[in-house]
Amino acid sequence: LNRSSDLLMAKKKEELQNPEEQATFTKDQFMGSEKYRYRQDVIEVLLDVDRSYSIEEVDMMITEYMEREAR
Predict the structure, then answer these.
(1) Burial state string for 39-70 with b = 16 or more CB within 10 A and e = fewer than 16
(2) Phi/psi of residue 65, nearest 5 degrees
């Protein structure tokens, strides 16, 4: 069990280091996502309709935008 959890953690770390291998989603998919239902206004402004984004990338974009707006 410990070995499999180590492998899972290594895979997660590798995915973070290789964003081209992460699953990506369109702006419309993020707009319809339950996770981002309270961030639709920000997603509307930040994301391009002709591009796909990873969840990590969108989370980072939202965080940076919110921090910049808070100043």
Answers:
(1) beebbeebbeeeeebbeeebeebbeeeeeeee
(2) -65, -45
Polymer length in residues for the chain: 71
**C-alpha–C-alpha distance, residues 33 and 50, integer Å:** 18
Q: Report pLDDT digits (tens) over 10-69.
A: 555 555 556 557 899 999 999 999 999 999 999 999 999 999 999 999 999 999 999 986
Do residues 54 and 24 make contact, with C-beta atoms less than 8 angstroms apart?
Answer: yes
**Under a CB-based contact definition with an 8 Å cutoff, are residues 43 and 36 in contact?**
yes
